[in-house]
Design a protein that fits this description.
The structure is a homodimer of 497-residue chains.
Chain A: H1 2-31, H2 38-56, H3 59-69, H4 75-93, H5 96-119, H6 122-143, H7 149-157, H8 163-186, H9 202-216, E1 223-227, E2 233-237, E3 240-245, H10 252-271, H11 287-301, H12 305-318, H13 328-334, H14 349-367, H15 376-388, H16 414-433, H17 437-442, H18 447-456, H19 466-474, H20 481-494
Parallel strand pairs in A: 1-3
Antiparallel strand pairs in A: 2-3
Chain lengths: 497, 497
């Protein structure tokens, strides 16, 4: 056993190192690389991916997995073997030609998406999306995860999540969201809102953001904060986790909530068990669970009155003129404004879920040939009006707004909403399990929450599935009631519903 | 032929990409990585190196090389095949065990070197150097480049350079340097030297350095300037070349000459033919030729009165108080001060060569067992006194000052001096070939020089050997007379000898 395991561990360490090389090529490209470097960078990333695939599908590894599966293993070993087997099977099922076709089509689709957005011309993008759907159906068919194409693709991002379960969850959430939105829209409390005005110097924003990250327990010796056009988090190892944000001089909240959001992702990555680094278990459970960490920190903590009781006086010290006279109540309104708008990435906590549900319903219908690509914009706008009560001015702020489908990311959107659901259920439990959690946050002490998350979620890595993790911590399966209750309570109070 | 060549090209492109991944891991470690990332970074770099070695020694590649060698090839193809064959042969000749032993011993030797420097205790380092020499002799023996151990190791850094030729060149240079140093030491002109005083804010230094780099023709869309403890240049591709410098608030010249020096390296990397990227010919000829580019820009351009005729007024605008009243003559003295000192990295143009010659003589004697490790400090100090007329206060500023031997870099030091020789010979030719070169530099126009170097040196890559390149450009083999003549003229005038 020992030799076999050691060989297996060495191979998985190489795989992790290769994945890290891909990550650093990509992090560098977003934050650091000079413009002309892009030409060769694509090839460098392709080489890293190709060698990763080659090593992952190596028959030596298949043989090791088989031998280890016949042995009596501890849980870390067993889960590692299972997870690697799952990854290898997926990789082996996809012929090289399909992988290359998908990559090539994604590159072309992305280019055409850029043009389509610029000209707000869906027809430019339509044939590439059509082609992408053909390839993704083929991928889903070959992956053999499920009879359902959608479930097979979803499994890549949210392992173990079944389509009927997802369908049921989103179906439960939707009417609550539309109902809540309607009530908020009708609420007269609206008019009292004060928006931020003035210029917020970027270096002051950055200093404040760093202070908040420090308070969250972000380890600066094991991480960085940089700038990039689209904020993201990259974990090169638990000891090297990098986040980015983008700054707007007119609105400090863009960068700050970006920092708290990515900071939540970063705490997850920094909290993975470094002793398991290089093993398949030393990874986040799923995209949904990863997103739960960013949403929990951004929304449940970062948009709460407890948090701002401590931080607002400090923010006013940083921006004394710009925030003069603003009260905690005013401030809570400003950072929790609910308003139906056509764009997902700037949506508030209530409407966000509806943006996701629209995408989920449409991408599933497209994949199952229940909706034709040429009818997509009409159907998009119809649902926007039905769920959100608004109509995009044009396709660029409508059906074309997200990059995901051009990259072939179908089945990905729901993980954003699942993140909100996991966050609410976890936070409900944290409030019960962490003594005096509210007062700690009010006093600026965020460490007890981070410690609770670290112990219960971060350290676990992939030793549990998402379902096992949430059941173990909260005693229940994933249940949308927590999220619905959280929204209805929070916004009920705020808008006096 | 076409298919075989295309397969070969694809494989060499992968090798280049893998080497780039190693470079980016290392660049990131020096400039960007958070402290705790170091623990896993070593393993990531080892994985990149191991996969590179595996791909380089792949029998498919051996077979391709054999088939291509039997074909009628154009020069780019032919040189590429030759160069890759050379690299593969070297890689195949070294058993895995030796490579691992060398890496492990280097890691240990480096750690012990750090301690030895701290305590100025050569005995701490001695056993690891001893072990390193045993391994390097074994490496030299297996490489089978030459009967001479030294030549076999030298060939890694300066391909094609023979030990007797190097011996003769250094033998010719030495008496001229000691003689010149003696005359300068005796010159009464010394006393007039003005040193820089005051505080030079780092952001102003950086802006000035960037202006100089821009004037040199550094392409900012294909490169970066950052900070690191030890300045260096990394070429990830001709379109992504990164240099670093270090700043001292008390002395702007540390960073500035660092920038010009690394800028010279960078122009070489940016000037490689991008059409050949991924082929073994798209690389610098040798370390010596690489160093010629940094030295040419740093010393022949950056320490010349022509250069400062244009730049001194600008430097005085940047630092008006700090440089008030300093004349061009004063300034030339300050940046060309010759003074025997124990440390190589801060040595002037005259004494620098003597520091190298001492290292060359001693490392050769150690390798050939003509000198025992335990006698090294005594022998070091003896030569310092004999060539430079000074004695290090202790081993930390003497025999222990350089990291190279701890890394196993034996045969590397001479390339620094060869760089000076190539630089002088190239600059002599440039003065003849580039019309009005002196007035261009006086007017701040450095582009004609960069263009000449680009056409004659940079674009060539490894299509020519060092010997072929220098002969083609100057009509002569590498000849130390140019360097000697340059030094004797320059410092003869400065010190009125």
């Amino acid at each position: 056993m020992n030799d076999t395991w050691q060989t297996f561990r060495k191979l998985t360490q190489s795989l992790t190192d290769l994945a890290t090389m891909g990550s650093i090529l990509s992090w560098d490209q977003e934050t650091t690389m000079p413009a002309k470097g892009a030409e060769k960078r694509a090839g460098q990333r392709a080489t890293a991916a190709a060698i990763y695939h080659e090593k992952l599908t190596d028959p030596t590894l298949t043989d090791l997995i088989k031998r280890l599966q016949d042995m009596d293993l501890e849980s870390v070993e067993m889960r590692s073997v299972e997870e690697l087997c799952r990854k290898q099977q997926k990789a082996l099922r996809l012929p090289r030609q399909l992988v290359e076709d998908l990559a090539r089509n994604a590159a072309n689709a992305y280019e055409s998406w850029i043009k389509a957005c610029r000209d707000s011309d869906f027809n430019e993008f339509a044939p590439w999306l059509e082609k992408m759907l053909v390839l993704k159906r083929e991928e889903a068919r070959l992956l053999e995860v499920s009879e359902s194409y959608y479930e097979s693709l979803l499994d890549e991002y949210e392992p173990g999540m079944k389509e009927p379960a997802l369908e049921e969850i989103l179906g439960q959430v939707r009417p609550h969201l539309t109902d809540l939105l309607e009530k908020i829209t009708d609420s007269p409390v609206h008019s009292g809102v004060k928006h931020f005005e003035g210029v917020f110097p970027i270096h002051v924003q950055e200093r404040f953001g760093r202070d908040v990250l420090s308070a969250m327990g972000f380890d600066w010796e094991a991480g960085r904060l940089d700038q990039s056009p689209h904020p993201f988090c990259t974990g090169l190892s638990p000891q090297d986790v990098r986040i980015t944000t983008r700054y707007s001089e007119k609105d400090f909240s863009v960068a700050l909530f970006g920092i708290i959001h990515e900071g939540g992702h970063a705490l997850y990555e920094q909290g993975l068990d470094p002793a398991h680094h290089g093993l398949p278990v030393c990874e986040a459970i799923s995209l949904g669970v990863h997103e739960s960490q960013s949403r929990l920190w951004e929304n449940h903590v970062g948009r709460s009155p407890e948090f701002w009781t401590h931080w607002l006086p400090r923010l006013k010290e940083a921006f004394p003129d710009q925030l003069e006279g603003i009260s905690l109540d005013d401030f809570m309104f400003s950072v929790n404004l609910v308003e139906a708008s056509p764009v997902r990435v700037t949506a508030d906590e209530v409407t966000y879920g509806l943006h996701i549900i629209i995408r989920f319903e449409l991408e599933k219908a497209l994949l199952n040939r229940e909706l034709e690509v040429r009818s997509l914009p009409t159907e998009w706008n119809r649902r926007m009006e039905s769920y959100l009560g608004i109509k995009p001015k044009h396709d660029a702020e409508g059906v074309l707004q997200d990059v995901h489908w051009s990259h072939g990311l179908i089945g990905y959107f729901p993980t954003y909403l699942l993140g909100n659901l996991y966050a609410a259920q976890l936070m409900d439990q944290a409030a019960k399990s962490v003594p005096e959690l509210g007062s700690h946050i009010t006093n600026g002490n965020l460490i007890p929450l981070r410690e609770w998350l670290r112990t219960n979620v971060h350290r676990i890595g992939k030793l549990l599935s998402a379902e096992e993790m949430i059941s173990k911590i909260t005693g229940k399966s994933l249940n949308p009631d927590y999220f619905i209750h959280y929204l209805e309570t929070k916004f009920g109070e705020l808008y006096e519903l």
